[in-house]
Task: inverse folding
């Protein structure tokens, strides 16, 4: 996977790539036993007028966000890195489908002079690398004034094919990740899955 983080845009100090090591980024951790299929090129995100109907509403004051999980997903399990920089919420549903929301809070030296695109590139590549993931499609959009990106991918976990959608929202110094992964691509086409991504809201934008 292309993860060109050696660019001169970075100031001296820790390589940004080192910031994405916790538990293989812990972002999709061991949950990549599932995935969704890419569809509809060039999607533009619209803010929902009402709270989307779905599953558990996850509100994190410490992470500064709220989001409503798709139907069938209950209150997620919370994990945290030893230094508290990464917090991950994971919930599983039927049909080998997983939903994950993660927050990475960077220290200023880790970011250096990295651009939002470079930060999201690094996170994307670190996440896909263990699964030999292939990017099928990428769409850029904006969430409450902050740059964001939707990545559709396919890959493998052992002998099982997986597909997924992962969205990154960079609200410096935080990078948010929303993911749905499944072994059945049709899971990504569900309306409540689309609303999951649309429902993400920063509490203090």
Result:
């Amino acid at each position: 996977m292309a993860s060109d983080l050696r660019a001169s845009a970075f100031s001296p100090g820790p390589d940004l790539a080192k910031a994405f090591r916790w538990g293989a980024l812990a972002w999709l951790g061991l949950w990549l036993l599932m995935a969704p299929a890419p569809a509809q090129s060039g999607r533009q995100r619209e803010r929902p007028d009402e709270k989307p109907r779905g599953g558990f509403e996850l509100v994190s004051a410490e992470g500064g966000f709220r989001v409503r999980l798709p139907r069938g997903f209950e209150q997620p399990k919370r994990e945290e890195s030893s230094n508290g920089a990464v917090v991950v919420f994971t919930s599983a549903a039927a049909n080998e489908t997983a939903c994950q929301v993660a927050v990475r809070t960077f220290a200023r030296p880790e970011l250096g002079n990295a651009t939002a695109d470079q930060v999201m590139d690094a996170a994307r590549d670190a996440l896909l690398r263990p699964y030999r993931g292939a990017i099928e499609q990428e769409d850029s959009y904006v969430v409450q004034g902050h740059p964001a990106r939707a990545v559709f991918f396919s890959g493998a976990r052992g002998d099982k094919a997986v597909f997924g959608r992962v969205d990154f929202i960079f609200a410096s110094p935080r990078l948010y990740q929303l993911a749905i992964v499944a072994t059945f691509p049709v899971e990504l086409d569900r309306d409540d899955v689309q609303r999951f991504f649309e429902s993400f809201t920063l509490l203090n934008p």
About this structure: The radius of gyration is 16 Å. The chain has three helices and ten strands. Residues 83-165+175-205 form a domain with the Protein Transport Mog1p; Chain A fold (CATH 3.40.1000.10). Residues 72 and 93 are 6 Å apart (CA to CA).
